[in-house]
Amino acid sequence: MSLPVAGHERGGDQSPERSDAKAPTVQRVSDVVIRFAGDSGDGMQLTGSQFTNTSAVLGNDLSTLPDFPAEIRAPAGTLPGVSAFQVRIADYDIHTPGDTPDVLVAMNPAALIANLGDLQPNSAIIANTDEFNERNFKKAGLEGNPLEDGSLSAFRVFTADITTMTRKALEDSDLDVRTKDRCKNLFALGMVYWLYSRPLENTVDWLQLKFKRRPEIAEANIKVLKAGWNFCDITQLFQVRYEVEKAALEPGTYRNIHGNSALAMGLVAASRRSGLPLFLGAYPITPASDVLHELATYKRYGVTTFQAEDEIAAVCAAIGASFGGALGVTCSSGPGIALKSEAMNLAVMVELPLVVCDIQRGGPSTGLPTKTEQSDLLQVLFGRNGDSPVPVIAAARPSDCFEVALEAVRIATRYMVPVVLLSDGYIANGSEPWRLPEIEDLPDLRTSFHDDPETFLPYMRDERTLARPWAIPGTPGLEHRIGGLEKADVTGKVSYDPHNHERMTRLRAEKVARVVQDVPDLEVHGDPDGGELLVLGWGSTLGAITGAVNQAREQGKPVSRAHLRWLNPFPANLGEVLARFDKVLLPEMNMGQLALLLRGHFLIDVQSYTKIEGKPFTRQEISDQIDRQLGASRS
Amino acid sequence: MSTETTTTLSKKDFQSDDEVRWCPGCGDYAILSAVQTVFPSLGIPREKFVIVSGIGCSSRFPYYMNTYGFHTIHGRAPAVATGLKMSRPDLSVWVVTGDGDALSIGGNHFMHVLRRNVGVKVLLFNNRIYGLTKGQYSPTSEVGKRTKSTPLGSVDAPFNPLAVALGAGATFVARSVDIFQPHLKSVLERAAAHPGTAFVEIYQNCNIFNDKAFENVTEKSARSENVLYLEHGEPLLFGKESPRGIARSGNSLEVVDVAEDGDGAGLVQWDERLPSAALAFELATLGPGFPVPLGVFRDVAAPVYEDAVIAQVRAQEEAHPDATLEQLIRGGDTWQVAGPTS
To answer: Which CATH superfamily, name and number, covers A25-243?
Structure first.
């Protein structure tokens, strides 16, 4: 009798592979959630990423949720030092990294305790017993050994002396003990690879490349990875092995992508499609720095990156580059956006294209640097002096960052306006398979500079977009001055005339409002003609909402969903769509910022559902809210 | 349509049709005139000039120049200029700033543009007062300065702009005075010729809020007796009536009477190209009893920031001539999902 370790069956097509009584059965599962947890120095992010990449190449659908502390090395063995990486793999189209782990790999007692609350009864725990000692119990605030005191009786616990076996595997190595011990995450990875029938090649290749200059380190890691695999193969620790088949995704070429990587690539793509050299001004900040890191490696695409002295210089340099005819971009998170706000207003006033990426994190102030939140919405819409509207677009999932980057550039250059692109820590660091677009299908973003002195005035406007001409220095006969002082309509001279100020304020607002011409109508998934309940989302809540609404509809519940990509301007049909439903449920990872706006705009009593824990919504949380709303409207 | 402006330009070509709105008698007028005189002589097409400024009286400068201009926000002109110059190295970019703009709110950008050695010229109009906000003390105001915000006198030690610039690693540092037109023009020409960041402090009189702040230099007898004009390769000499010089005495500098010294053998020979900025720093910070040096304090060659940045990009482009978007997005591990087989 073999107890299942982990995974959700769909159809239960169990297929014992070997007849040998001692051999484990191989069972097919449809969907599994694994969480690797350990000290922030234990390499859990790497372990999770490797499992993810291997699963991606196998063709599973997947979704990841890294969760790590803001401290680089919080005190070892303590709860604040726990770093975790959750990955969900499936043989079908999934939308979230999973609500609760089926398997928790706990490298020490703190990692176990910090994550225990997220486990469902019967989940599996793989624990590194070497770290379960008095010293570590104390650090984790435990009285005794949870592996022995019966407190884990609801779960299925598998133990292994991972550290000891790692050292043993490296007996012949000349490396010091410290270095040997740092390989132990590969032992755990080898175990999980065995359990889920993953090949080792992908990680072996990666290790060889990563430690090209230190082959002894590569060799040690590979040895330990194999030792972990062999340990499971020999000892029969697990009686069942699992397989997760390829997902039936839309045909095409796929790669695994993180949100920040997709954003960086989207910006390069926009540069190529517009013919404008990309200039990124940035200052390091979590969780946005990876955009700077990635773009710094794309110099071959003509990308210039500038690590400025501060957030203000970063955006100002981008504005200077735009003035010169480049594609000026800056990238930050909430605290940095606060510093940039005066310069963003300069771009509003001088009407130059600029893309400001805000990878949101928990606030206010320094807040929760490594955790996710959607609480900068009102900041980017209104957090500047004066009447200062800017277009705002939000990415909904990691791969979507690529598309919204192209959209943001399209609007910024077409309307001569700074555009804010919102992402957040969840999609920035999360990953999923990305079906690669055909290059020729990407939008044509070509733009032109004004060069005719006979027809030039700095603040004359395009009839359709109200954009002013982009006239770059070096063009003979177009010498002109721009700046933050109010400009006279058409001529662009400094003007303090009261009527002109009102006219210009309204023109700037009208220009942003006209972006709606390039915003597609909001699409309703479910009942387009309306019904009882609409779940409206924006940004990274897409996955949880889609999962919950799809499930509810399968159960016959009258629920539809819609997702906003543009937060300013709203799609032209938004008010009308909202009015078609008896109730609108709006989940947000903030205190209800979009709900406040929608109530003001449309006088609709939007039901705000909020979560401010630095963590994304689970599907279950949204499902519960759907049931509540449906129940309430029927009682 | 695109006819490049010829190099036979005159001062008039650089005068914009905007009415100049500084207070009558302001030192800014003299600086504007000097810049408008020097620009046509530099052999640069007019459309290649860009003046970038921050906030303050001096920062209205771009409106009065018939070139490209960008009146940015308080203290940030060096940052805007850096981005512009990095993306457009073909342009002649001039930053116009003041003592408050560059040394208070914009201190960080001022310091970093200098240490990077971006190829822009920075003209700091120092009047030792906040003029546009109507008379508060500035970071270059002397201790004891009574202003609206320091009714009992300032207790802040002032910055010496030259010392700050030298400390930040500036490769070109000079000082001149608004009304010393021939000198100012020659310093501006030298700044224009410097490939990296050229920093020029210009003593500028604010006749409304801080009149005669530089009387120790501009007053008639001071001009001849209290100003030391730095001449590369020449001994440090000053004083028309009583010729004196600067000599080294132990660890410090001293003023010596040239007549008594005879052949002047003990005088310091001025060298603006010394690898160390130490002597320039000493001259920039001379105290009471010493003359006020004007001219070029430092002019050394160093790699120019945007050249190095662009060289990296070009080298990568050349090493990967086939870099396509296709390659970008398909780099890394990919896998195929086949269409439905039927």
So the answer is: Pyruvate-ferredoxin oxidoreductase, PFOR, domain III (3.40.920.10)
The tokens for B41 are: 């002589």
Q: Whole-angstrom Cα distance, residue A429 to residue A257?
A: 9
Taking the Cβ of residue A441 and every Cβ of chain B, the question of whether any pair is shorter than 8 Å is answered with: no
- Cβ of B333 within 8 Å of Cβ of A477? The answer is no
What pLDDT, on the 0 to 100 scale, is given for residue A635? Answer: 55
Q: What confidence score (pLDDT) does residue A387 get?
A: 98
Q: Enter the tokens of residue B2.
A: 């695109």
- B294-315 pLDDT per residue, tens: 999 999 999 999 999 999 999 9
Q: How close B25 comes to chain A (CA, Å)?
A: 23
> In Å, how far is B330's CA from the nearest CA of chain A?
8
Using a CB–CB cutoff of 8 Å, tell me whether A199 touches chain B.
no
| Residue A20 pLDDT > 80 | no
Residue spans per domain, chain B: 11-213+301-305
The CA-atom distances, in angstroms, between B103 and each of B74, B76, B81, B113, B191 are 11, 11, 17, 13, 20
pLDDT at residue B4, rounded to an integer: 55
Residue B68 has its nearest CB partner, among A342, A454, A473, at A473
What are the residues whose beta carbons fall under 8 Å from the beta carbon of B191, sequence distance 6 or more? B121, B123, B172, B174, B198, B200
pLDDT at B340: 59
pLDDT band at A3 (very low <50, low <70, confident <90, very high): very low
**Chain A 51-70, residues with CB within 8 Å of chain B CB atoms:** 53, 56-59
Considering only A122-136, B98-112, B260-274, B295-309, which range has the smallest mean pLDDT?
A: B260-274
In DSSP terms, A156 is beta-bridged to A124
CA distances from B108 to A318, B27, B136 (A): 17, 26, 21
Domain A255-441 belongs in CATH node 3.40.50.970: yes
Same fold, A25-243 and A255-441: no
pLDDT value at B25 more than 50: yes
| Token couple for B182 | 């021939």
In B117-180, which residue ranges form alpha helices assigned H by DSSP? Answer: 161-167
Give yes or no for a contact between A329 and A347, defined as CB atoms under 8 angstroms apart. no
Residue window 244-283, chain A: list those with CB within 8 Å of chain B.
246-256, 265, 268-269, 272, 277, 279, 281
Query: How large is the average pLDDT for residues A345-367?
Result: 98
C-alpha B54, offset from chain centre:
13
Looking only at the bridges linking them, the beta strands covering A61-67 and A31-39 are unpaired
Cα gap A526→A549, rounded to integer Å: 9
CA pseudo-torsion sign B84, B89, B94, B99: positive
Write down the domain spans for chain A.
25-243, 255-441, 531-634
- 3-state secondary structure at position A555: coil
As a whole number of angstroms, the distance between CA A263 and CA A331 comes to: 10
- pLDDT tier at B280, thresholds 50, 70, 90: very high
Q: Closest to B71 (Cβ–Cβ): which among A59, A472, A481?
A: A481
Superfamily of domain B11-213+301-305 in CATH is Thiamin diphosphate (ThDP)-binding fold, Pyr/PP domains (3.40.50.970)
Task: Output the pTM of the full model.
Answer: 0.93
Residue-wise pLDDT tens digits, A459-489: 999 999 999 999 999 999 999 999 999 999 9
**CA–CA dist A154, A121 (Å, integer):** 5
Domain A531-634: CATH architecture, name and number where available: 3-Layer(aba) Sandwich (3.40)
Residue range A234-275, pLDDT digits in tens: 998 898 899 999 998 899 999 999 999 999 999 999 999 999
B328 and A451 in contact by Cβ < 8 A? no
pLDDT for A4 beyond 60: no
Q: Do B313 and A325 touch (CB under 8 A)?
A: no
Question: And the tokens for A135?
Answer: 């010293």
